[in-house]
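Could you please consider the sequence and fold following this short note?
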Amino acid sequence: MTAPSATNPHTAGSAPAPASNAAPTLRDAFHQPKAVWAIAFAATVSFMGIGLVDPILPAISSQLDASPTQAMLLFTSYLFITAIAMFFTSWFSSKVGVRTTLLIGLALVVVFAALAGASGSVSEIIGLRAGWGLGNALFISTALAAIVGATAGPSGGAIILYETALGIGMALGPLLGGLLGSVSWRAPFFGTAVLMAIGFIAITALLKKEAKPVHVSPLASLRALGNPALRTLALVAIFYNFTFFVMLAYSPFPLEAAAAAQGKEFGAMQIGGVFFGWGVCLAITSVFVAPILTRKLGLIPTLLTIEGLLAVLMLGLALAHGSMIGIIVLIIVGGLLLGVMNTALTETVMEATDLPRGVASSAYSGVRFLGGAIAPAVAGPLSEAVGAAAPYVLGAITVALSMLMLVIGRRHLSQVGQQHHLTSEQEAEAITAGDEV
């Protein structure tokens, strides 16, 4: 999941432009210049890349003679570099421009995805996934700003198109990984490289270079963590994201083992189908359910409620880790909870401080992805040492710690819910920022 700045990073120091009183329509969303469609296509592929490797982790483990722990490090190296890069992408794009940043990010993904597909060992793929993570961070962190800047009409319509790209990418990533992975574990990597290369060519041809951007300090996001409210929410996010990636990165292994125990084959295609359902549920609740719950319950009560349910669900996975059907059902239900949580947490970040939204989003995202990077590295050794249920139990504990951080730091969140609710355009930005894992 990588979160872009919720505003154009090159206007981060200025007040947000007033949103149009009229809600964006589907016509606004799909009546766009070719440049917007080019960015949306590349964004869809980029989001697909997040879940693409999930279905092929067991195949990589068995065919490259690697342990599950080593296979899951494909997520760790990717997310760790993404996390570090997120702190500095706004500064980088302010130096070279949005278009150049997009193209550098796409080029890095093309190169490192192709090299990963040609690799002969899991260690090589782990290292190459780090380069892939850097490219993805550069692309995703500036894609929303680029798509809004290139639109011909209301920016809310372009954001809806971006949301659509995000939802399709999150859902189709595991499915494409499963389809291509059923041919070879190498195929998803090569497929991503080809699709991203098409995106690179389209953006090169169709997106014009923007005016010289406003300078952003390279330390702006790091300094933002000195804000007590943002620091509180970053701690909430790092523990929550640990749980998120226990579910995403670890679950293919007990799922395959549970199926094998019942005498059934559960390969990349089947795992991809399960996480396709997970991604569809995540996209639906983030866009349609989260706004309703946050309006009715409030942001903080919504966060505490969803995290409590998520802790129960993780304990359910621990108890059902030997049941193929049980794991499948709980993973898909988990997608419903995670979609609400992602959007509500990012909207809380937007309301909690007076910091520029781009700076706050980059700082918060950088910290939360560290939780995602740690989870796969811990889940594998813990499973081997204690048992298959242990990572899920730890996931329940970490999401409980996330709730504790929220309760302890709640005194710093007095602004949340006190100001006017976000406009429909700002709410759409929260959805897109929250959904990018």
Notes: Residues 1-24, 430-434 have pLDDT under 50 and may be disordered.
